[in-house]
Amino acid sequence: MTLATLNIPPAAPEIFVLVMACLVLVVDLFIDETRRHITYALTLLTLAIAAVITASSGTQTPHAFNGMFVEDPMAQLLKVFILISVAAMLVYSRAYARARGLFRGEFFVLTLFATLGMMVMVSASHFLTLYLGLELMSLCLYSLVALTRDSATATEAAMKYFVLGALASGMLLYGLSMVYGATGSLQIAEVAAKIASHQANGTLLVFGLVFVVSGLGFKLGAVPFHMWVPDVYQGAPTAITLLIGSAPELAAFAFVVRILVQALGDQALAIEWQQMLILLSVLSMAIGNVTAIAQSNIKRMLAYSTISHMGFMLLGFIGGNVGGYGAAMFYIVTYVLTVGGAFAMIMLLSREGFEAETLDDFKGLNRRNPWYAFSMLLIMFSLAGIPPVVGFYAKLSVFQSIMQAGMTWLAIVAVLFSLIGAFYYLRVVKMMYFDEPLEDAALISTPDVRALISINGLAVLVLGVLPGALMGLCQRAIQASL
Question: What are the pLDDT digits (tens) for 283-336?
C-alpha cells in the first residue's frame, strides 16, 4: 500500500473527528467541573466542522486506503445526518447530563469515538473496515450505558447489551468468514463480481448469508433478535438512550446496504435474503406494535416502537430495487429526526432526582406548556404515520415500493400493523390533552433546547407537507452509490 493508493482526502472527516476526540480527551484533563462547558463546546464544534467537511468533500476518486474505504453520495449524506443527530443529542441532554453527573469528559469522548465508528461503518467498502467501524461504535455505546456506575439498572442493561452484542458480532463474523471462503475476497466489489460471474461456492454462500442476516437482525433490533432493545432503552440514562436510538440506526442502514445490496445483491442470492427479511419484517411489526400497547414505561414503549419501525424500514429492502432502497433511506432518516424529539421531551420532563419514564408523566402536558404538547403531538402523529406529518409519507413510500414489487399482501399486512400501532401513540396524545396533570410545576429549559425542540417538531410537519426535496436527495444518493 503506497501513498498513492492511500488517497487520504476522502477520509478527511473521520481523521478530523479522531484528532479532535484525542484533543478533547487531553483538554478535559486540565479543566475543572466549573469549566466543563469548554469540553462540551469543543465536541459540538468538532461535529459541526466534520459535517461541513463531509458535505463539501466531493472528490473525483472517492476510494481510499486501497479500496477499503469509500466516500460515495450515500456515505456523505448519511454521515451529515449522523453528525447532526449526535449534535442534537448533546444539546438536548446538557441539563439532564449535568444533573446526573454525566456531564464530564468520558461522556463527550466516548460519544465522539462512537460517532467515528458510525462514520467508518457508513463508508466501508471492505468487510474488515465494516467490522472495525461496528466494533468501535458498539464498544463505546456499551461503555456509555454503564457510565452511571452507581446505577444497578444501567449496569445490568450494559451487561445485557455487551453479551448479546458480542453474540451478534460473532454470528456476523462467522457469516462473513463463510462469504470469504465462498468468494476468496473481503472486498465488497470483488465479492459481488465473483458471485455475479458464478465463481463462488453457492452452498457456502447461502449458509454464510443466514448468519450474516442474523447478525444484522441483532444490530437492527429486529425480531427475533430484539431481546436487548427494551432492557437497554429502559436501563440506560435517557441521554444515552437517545444516542442509541438515533444515529446508530443510520449507520445500521448503511451496514445493510453495503453487505446485502452491494456485496450479496446478485439476483439469485437476493431472493434468498429477501425471503429472510420478509420474516424479520412481519415479526418485527407484529411483536413490536402489539407488545408496545402493554407498556406503561414510555422508554420501553419507544423501544418496542423502534422494533416495529425497523420492520417497516426493511420493507424497502424487500422490493429489491433502487426506489425501495431510497424509500428505506428516507424512512430511517425521518424516523431518527422524529424519535430524537420524543426522547428530548422525556428529558425535558425529567429533573434532578426525578426521571420522567412513565406515560403518566405526560398527563396534562398541554396545561403546563401548550407548545411542547403540540411538538410532542406532531412527533407522536409522525411515529403513528398519521398525515400530514412526515411519518405518513415515509410509510407510504415503503408501502409503494413493495407494491411495485408485486407484494400487495405484504403492504396490507404492514398497514394493519400500522393501525394497531397508532393506538399507543394516540394514547400519549390523549393523556397530554385530556387528562389532569399530576403536577403543575413549570417546565424549565434553556433557549437552545427550546429552539431545537421547536425546529424538530416543525421539521416533522414541514417534511410531511413538502417531502419531495429530502426524498429526491435520498433517491439520488442511493442511485449514485449502487
Answer: 999 999 999 998 888 999 999 999 999 999 999 999 878 888 999 999 999 999
Q: Which grid coordinates belong to 130?
A: 465494516
**Looking at this protein, which amino acid is placed at residue 256?**
V
Residue type, 407: M
Residues 6+ apart with CB under 8 A from 56: none
Q: Cα separation of 309 and 303, whole Å? A: 10
Residue 240 Cα to chain centre, angstroms: 13
CB 226 within 8 Å of CB 173 = no
Beta partners for 70?
63
The beta-strand segments (E) located in 9-96 are 63-64, 69-70
| Closest-CA residue to 169 (of 210, 138, 125, 123) | 138
Residues 6+ apart with CB under 8 A from 17: 46, 50, 112, 115, 116, 119
pLDDT digits (tens, 9 = 90+) for 155-197: 888 998 998 889 889 999 999 999 999 888 889 889 888 888 8
The span from the CA of 439 to the CA of 75, in Å, is 46
Task: HSE, CB side, 13 Å, CA atoms: give it for residue 480.
Answer: 16
Name, in order, each residue with C-beta under 8 angstroms of 450's C-beta and a sequence gap of 6 or more: none
Q: How would you classify the pairing of strands 69-70 and 63-64? A: antiparallel
Taking alpha carbons only, the member of 455, 477, 459 closest to residue 467 is: 459
C-alpha cell at 170: 460473532
Q: How far is CA 75 from CA 58, 170, 180, 474, in A?
A: 11, 26, 24, 11
pLDDT in tens, 396-445: 999 999 998 888 999 999 999 999 989 999 999 999 998 888 777 777 78
Crossing angle of helices 73-99 and 447-465, in 10° steps, is 140
Contact 222, 286 (CB under 8 A): no
- Cα separation, 470 vs 461, in Å, equals 13
